[in-house]
Amino acid sequence: MGRRLVPTLLITLLLLLHAQLWLGRGSLPKVAQLRADLSDQLQKNEQFQQANSQLEAEVQDLKEGLEMVEEKARMELGMVKTNEIYVQMSR
């Protein structure tokens, strides 16, 4: 019985380690999923960085000149100066 105890114990430990590798918290499928999630998040972060850069440039333009303010007012709010005629065309 003593001769079988050590190999049985070692095989049991090996099976437990193997199960942890495939099914546990740090398993290979879980790591692959986390890597995919990380890749997706990095891509989203890049998109948000680009949007932030555009917004920063727009804010800088708004701070520097009134032309951008006038353009925004005309496009978004329908601003019309005196002695101008506003024509709206529908498609």
UniProtKB/TrEMBL annotation:
It comes from the Bacteria. It is a single-pass type II membrane protein. Keywords: Cell cycle, Cell division, Cell inner membrane, Cell membrane, Coiled coil, Membrane, Transmembrane, Transmembrane helix. One of its GO terms (cellular component) is plasma membrane. The keyword Cell division applies. Pfam families: DivIC. It is found in: Cell inner membrane. Its main location: membrane. Residues 1-5 are cytoplasmic. Residues 24-91 are periplasmic. Residues 31-72 form a coiled coil. Belongs to the FtsB family. Essential cell division protein. May link together the upstream cell division proteins, which are predominantly cytoplasmic, with the downstream cell division proteins, which are predominantly periplasmic. This is Cell division protein FtsB. It comes from Rhodoferax fermentans. The gene is ftsB.
